[in-house]
Fold:
Amino acid sequence: DVIRAFIASDYTLKDHEFLYRGRAGKQRALQLSLTGILEKGKLARIWGAQTDLREIKETRSALDRRRNFQNLMAGVSSYMIMTPVNQSGDVIEHCLREVCEFIGADRSSLIWSGDSDTHGTVNYRWSAREVPESDEVSIEDFPVLSRTILAGGVIRIEDVASMPDSQATDRATREALGITSFVTLPLTVAA
Structure:
């Protein structure tokens, strides 16, 4: 493809995108600019430059995903602001579903802890499948992670089974619920 395009363009290519698979089978992309040097009517040499487009494409993809997430959050915020109080429960569950579908999660819960430092109540949840979950959450079940949340920290665990032994109780509770990865975000409500 590149050779044909090079010959067809009279031995000059500018910003030609070349896609191929690397050694590990990973998709690669280069931008090529080539100039052929002819001597006595024959191609003697090729001068060229290349740019690896992989990082550029990954950055664009990450920016697109971030913009799409920001649009989702703006839509969710507007939706929640405009909803009458008597419909807020359905709207919150709908919004939980939208966020889960966007990030590829199979469930989400909104837990209210109020003034309690020992337990929380699951006020809203959404799940793609039926999962047994309690409406009460005790920090005894999540002793290490709950300290992070109560301090306002964000928790992101990509593989529950790989959680360290220092978080054995937290890990066992998550595994018992069938949770394999999770993100926990503290939300603050101000009066």
Summary: The two ends are 64 Å apart (CA to CA).
